[in-house]
Amino acid sequence: MHDDRLLVEGRLERALRQFIRPAQYAHRVPLTLSVWHAPGEPVAVSAALEAVYEPFATGAEWGSPWSTSWFRLQGRVPDQWRGRRVEVVVDPGFTGDGPGFQAEGLVYDASGVPLKGVHPRNRHIPVASPARGGEPVHFLLEAAANPAVLHDFMPTPLGDVLTAGTGPIYRFASADLAVLDEDVWRLTLDIEVLSELMAELDAGRPRRHEILRALEDMLDALDLHDVPGTAAAGRAALAGVLAKPAHASAHRVSAAGHAHIDSAWLWPLRETVRKASRTFANVTALAKEYPELVFACSQAQQYAWVKEHQPLIWERVKEAVVDGTWAPVGSMWVESDANMPGGEALARQITHGMRFFREELGVETEEIWLPDSFGYTAAFPQLAKLAGVRWFLTQKLSWNQSNKMPHHTFWWEGIDGTRVFTHFPPVDTYNSQFHGAELAHAERNFADKGRASRSLVPFGWGDGGGGPTREMMERARRLRSLEGSPRVEIEKPSAFFAAAEEEYGARAPVWSGELYLELHRATYTTQAATKRGNRRSEHALREAELWCTAAAVRDAAYLYPYEALDRLWKTVLLHQFHDILPGSSIAWVHREARETYARVLAELEEITASAVRSLGAGGPAVLNASPYARDEVVDSGDGALVRVDVPALGTRSLEDARGPGPGAVAHTTGDTILLTNEHLSVAVDAAGLLTSVRDLAADREVLAAPGNLLQLHPDHPTQYDAWDLDRHYRHRHTDLTDADSVELVEDGPLRVTVRVVRSFGASRITQEIRLAAGSRRVDVVTDVEWRESEKVLKAAFPLDVHAERAAAEIQFGHVHRPTHANTGWDAARYEICAHRWLRVAEEGYGIALLNDSTYGHDVTRVEHGGTLGTTVRLTLLRAPHSPDPETDRGTHRFTYALLPGAGTGDAVAEGIALNLPLRVAAAPVLAPLVSVDHPAVTVESVKLADDRSGDVIVRLYESRGGRAAATLGTSFPVARAQVTDLLERPLNEADTGEAGLTLALRPFQIVTLRLRPA
Asked: Is 372 a catalytic residue?
């Protein structure tokens, strides 16, 4: 036989494009349109029903950026369409961009009942099937004029309603009443499924040629000038090849409907409320037509939005859960960033999410579902297990730039040794459309073939929402068992995980430690104000809960602010979404985030101050919310500095403050200012650099070269501006060594301070280098007026220690990372995430760098004067232009600190201290509510139980990476003590002794205790 494959394939492509697809809608008549352009922000449908509409014609422009227009679509089904499937097909001006990244809408009936969403790949609105003829048609379309923001990462003003302009950006193309020819529609799907499968089969396989000839026969049976009349004959020609079953050994795909909806990204939070509603309406409507659908949906926050704003859609969701067509997944409040949220915040993501799903929908979720976050902390396995979560899913590591993950199904081991069964879908997308290329890739790419036979495929339009479509469901029916293709079974993710674990769990490999994404490293730094707001809010919540709990235990009349704290926690958790906290959203999102954090912090200050007042009468006192005793210099409230010694989680009267004792002094020698206290001697030169930091107790120099060296790099990522810090940024830099001024501004006796001012480009930095009496820390309090463009600012500390690895704080512990680049995996970690501290050490001596809002760091081994040292740098600020063209421009204030001679415990305690300032207020001197007698056991949170029983919840963990036997005491009598899971559900009675509760912790073990006051 002559090889005419290309001719047949070309014939097929043209016939499908020019004749078959256009024939799916056999008849059309235009609808009558009228419009109401809603002023300002979106309104409820009730307002739209009362509005006055004006005539509108297709072809007319509408919609300034971010505005909403309500369109009435009216008409009548022609009598001659009796017995046909009639739909409205709407195109308000869709562009080439995908669903969720342009105009979209929600359709209501004439009475205001929401029906379904419309987007470029889902334009139809059912009218009747079969039609009687003569039915009146009246729909209301809430059309959102959302602009397409991300075009080649070019700067654009469209990312904020304040700068986007007022001119219309869409032209309404059409709104028609149409007949869907079901034979032609189904023929189109037959052709697409078979031709895509054929394209993935090797040319030497008979199955490929069998499909080709069947498609040729179909073309011969089809009259292209009468596609509707001959579509049935065309389908008959394909029936045989569609009926051939998959091989017994075919890869098994468990498919779950999905609609990844970014809670904010290229749209503001308020628009996500509507995106969730559109998607949820789509899915519940689709399930009525395709009862085999299972839709996997995460993010309790989005459910809560739909419940609040669209109660009718919410009722449909609840029915779908009962019917089994809807599967709540994910166990979290939002799909958060998985690197930067603090330990307690990550725990609350899970507890708030799981509690919502259980209380609102009666579902116990069993998986963490984070397909799109930018790397994953090694604390996750333990947190998951403590919450009763069995499984973990992501696919984001398929984006790695350098190294391919060796497994798709495996056990992931956390820092404490806990393991969770984990799956990376080898289809490498969470937005599958069941294309032949996707399924073939999943089969070829699956790394665990031979031992495992199944993988998961999330299908549906996502990122901006949308979800599965009827075309996808039709594809799934054809792919259920089709020779040459993987078998496709739509089922709940839990069914997949259970089957995969049963098949492979005993032999699955283990990955130990963090899941580092070799991409998007700049998300540790971008939008510094958002990150600062998150860090400060996390610590303010910790402090508020502690003193509110103390007040509630001390005074039965005190009303613990359950509702306010719950609301504030959920606000902070929402803003940890993986495009908000990482800094990769539009300007509007981050502008609102800054405003929100300011309100959160102000309200928490009021809550905390009220709780402190409720502790009882007393004179001026210092309150310490840290789990470690503090010896610090504080402002007494009247501008005077006082050195105080305050117990962990307790208070101390200012009257008991120490005298000056060994103070801090400064003197000048030539161009050098020398700052000294009982622990350190710090030299600052005329350029404002730290030329020496000497540890007096260890009698050793800490620096290998001048420290606190600010370095400015060009920052031009290859593609993802806000997301990426590409390796080539290191090729050039400027050392900022010119100082406008260097002056001693505080000269003891309790604190000495040198102020350094630098100007460069259009920016100005003022830094106060502080050394306080009794402190082992050198604090650098920094104010920046940042006006740079596409630059990254680093602060470098070349340290005289030989460290082969660096320890970086993560949630509930720390991880070690190599400082060398021996392997590709090591080299890829050229930018890393740390929470409050990063420590490098050689045997017998360590140095930590602390911060109060910075996450990005790098650590390298550098030779200085013939000696190999370790340079630690903090990544302070960036200035990318997309998607926010003004990213980080403005005023910033943050503090970082050098801690010489630091053990791991010192880094833990001082990192907390830097982030949780002592509070001076009128209060009685009180014994700590709880106390622990082992320094490695760190109390993470103290609060009242969420069930409002009045029980006290204490969460603590082993923070140094070793074993710890400890006793926990309380200042209140305890009637019952229980160990609980993460959701405060009792697991067993706690062990108690004469001195209190006895604890035996493994390295990095987290324990949650429930204490019932007597």
From this structure: yes
- Residue-wise DSSP of 234-298: HHHHHHHHHHSPPPTTPPEEEEEE---B-SSSSS-HHHHHHHHHHHHHHHHHHHHH-TT--EEE-
Burial of 601 (0-12, 13-18, 19+ CB in 10 A): middle
List residues bridging with 838 in a β-sheet: 808, 849
SS (H, E, C) 801-852: CCCCEEEEEECCEEEEEECCCCCHHHHHCCCEECCCEEEEEECCEEEEEEEC
Cis peptide before 917 (omega within 30 of 0): no
Which tokens in the block code for residue 151?
Answer: 């075009």
Q: What DSSP character marks residue 31?
A: P
Residues 143-161: tens digit of each pLDDT: 999 999 998 899 999 999 9
- The tens digit of pLDDT for each residue in 653-662 reads 998 877 667 8
CA distance 836 to 676: 25
Structural tokens at position 420: 């969770």
What is the secondary structure of 296-318 as a DSSP string? EE--HHHHHHHHHH-HHHHHHHH
Active-site choice (176, 372, 448, 715)? 372
Question: What 3 state SS string does 848-884 have?
Answer: EEEECCCCEEEEEEEEECCEEEEEEEEEEEECCCCCC
Give the Cα separation of 469 and 492 in Å (integer): 17
- What are 775's two structure tokens? 């402190």
What's the whole-number mean pLDDT along residues 628-636?
94
Single pTM value for the model: 0.97
Q: What is the rounded CA–CA span in Å between residue 801 and residue 846?
A: 7
Using pLDDT thresholds of 50, 70 and 90, give the confidence band for residue 462.
very high
Cα–Cα distance between 727 and 402 in angstroms, integer?
12
